[in-house]
Specification:
alpha/beta; 12 helices; pyrimidine biosynthesis; EC 4.1.1.23; RibuloseP-bd_barrel; Orotidine 5'-phosphate decarboxylase; OMPdecase_type-2
Length: 284
Amino acid sequence: MTTAATPQPLAPFGARLHRSIGERGRLCVGIDPHPSLLQAWGLDDDVAGLERFALTVAEALAPEVSVLKPQSAFYERFGSRGVAVLERVVEVARQGGALVCMDVKRGDIGSTTQAYADAYLDPRSPLFSDAVTASPFLGFGSLTPMVETARRHGAGLFVLALTSNPEGHEVQRATAADGRTVAATVLDSLRELNAGAEPLGSFGPVVGATIDDAGTDLDVNGPILVPGYGAQGGTVEDMRRIFGATARAVIPSTSRGVLAAGPEAAALVAAARRANDDVAALDR
């Protein structure tokens, strides 16, 4: 991280996200340079292909959608050169007016968690993002350095709660000594962080678009990041079923459903607009 002076704090992430949704809609598009997508675009699976793919998406969609969500693993696999591309993606996305949610799913304890917070939630970092995804499964309190850093700099967190992968059930739906599921304890902790926030809190859960009945209250007075919409099978009707009246807090996330329309920028924009129009039904 550089040692430049800390910029003035941004407005809280929840307030900025609420404003962006009103202006641009609620769609989040993942920028996931999966090898199969690079191949489908006629690109080589190397740093040059990664850069062409990721920057094409960022430049095309940053002026269009509320949130862009790079999945860091697809950049990290190329080492420092891939991370340099990720830094550029963040810069281009934010210059285009999109909020950036860095999909890193980090979770650790103590000084290590603080280091992750410094990497992604401190504006002095070239990877500074408006929000990050985080894993609470070392105990929600282990995320305190991320929470405090996010509050200090107007950033947000999306914390794993009820994911669609079948392996997640053994942890997320396990029951604690007080009778609550692990997922319910995560949601309760987020609810506490967002208490009194208006118009929207800055701390939300990650809940899959294809889960069965959640079995718990999903309203945390904050945004709900919902991956799995589109190519992974999640639909607007699924989100209505899962979230009910809380569906207006949902941020549906798609990647392949939009990215497969490339490599032409106009086709990416058209696909994103169609998806954004589709999920606008959650507001009705």
